[in-house]
Amino acid sequence: MSGYQDGRLRARWRRATRLLVAAAAMSAGSLVLTATLTAGTANAGPAQRAALAAPTVSSVTAGGAHTCAISTDGGLWCWGSNYGGQLGDGTTTNRSAPTQVGTATWTNVDAGTGHTCAVRTDGTLWCWGSNFRGQLGDGSTTSRSAPVQVGTATTWARGDAGPQHTCAIRTDGTLWCWGFNRTTQLGVGASPYVANTPLQVGTATDWVSVSTGYGHTCGIRTGGTLWCWGASSDGQLGLGNLTPQTAPAQVGTATGWTGVAAGYVHTCGVRSGALWCWGENGYGQLGVSGSYRTAPVQIGTATTWNRIAASSDTTCASRTDGTLWCWGKNSAGQVGDGSTTHRSAPAQVGAATSWTGGLAVTDHGCAIRTDAGLWCWGDNSGGQLGDGTTVNRSTPAQVTLPA
Q1: pTM for the complete prediction?
Q2: CA–CA separation, 172 vs 208, rounded Å?
Q3: In degrees rounded to 5, what are phi and psi of residue 359?
Q4: Among 14, 26, 31, 44, which residue has the fewest nearby CB atoms (within 10 Å)?
Q5: Which of 308, 240, 315 is nearest to 283 (CA)?
């Protein structure tokens, strides 16, 4: 870890997260797992038939120790650690199997460390869970165990929840952020220190995506330009220096950026099919050897990367051939390669070539295959793998939503 890193703050955050997850009492859930992918419907037993009839998944997000997914019918499901109410089921009881969040239909969901935000089909934005730093955006710092609406706007397109701040884009292309602003990660200057309602980031109306890290944020505009702001303790802004930014600053002059993912203190992005990473590299999360990088460094020579996910100290990405690759911290098996060895270069997750759906990773990972089946692996201390246990897995295991 770089000497520039705020070690005490980071240690406190990680220690608090571990204690909260460990202290939360587990409640047994019921989950039907698909026992085999080759068994036909006619020969399937009752459990297999139930799994085959269950809803399939269109998107997935991984929080600190919880997971949420939207089914193809628009239903929202969450499971795992629930100490702050981040599962949205009205309780603070952990769930080791998927539980539905109300009956509304949803289009987008993103999980932070201890909170979750999602957009409904009517364009309204809702958040729930931990709210000590105003990250729910409801005008308070009160934690919520059920979804609470963020303002009254009906033009929200998508959101991204970080450890203690949240950002979201509206259909008019404007970008809004709220929550903790200690390292200017909101992009609105050094003040306020905490914002408990959304604040517009500049006046641009061409934002298409945003990703929130621990103390920094990055986003892409319609022209394919990449912008980052907030802390730069290890070069996570990609600007070639360690200077923090209070407002969005362009990363280089290149266009062609199609995806960006902000991790704990590192960032990765896809540009014209090539994969680039920068920032802290203590676990190899940049996909190269050596120390931190203050400017983007290309990972290999492949130009067929199409999706990127990063959070905590692990990174995952998929290629156009349907293969899935992960690297970085692997103490809980979150790289998914069957080991717990940290990786400083992309390691393929199994041999499947059907990973073409959603992708998310923190200390656990989840991804969707072409058949809309959901698979998760890694840390399972809060039941976030959704398999009814709290046992870690170093390879993907299928998760089935209740029928």
Answers
A1: 0.88
A2: 10
A3: -150, 135
A4: 14
A5: 315
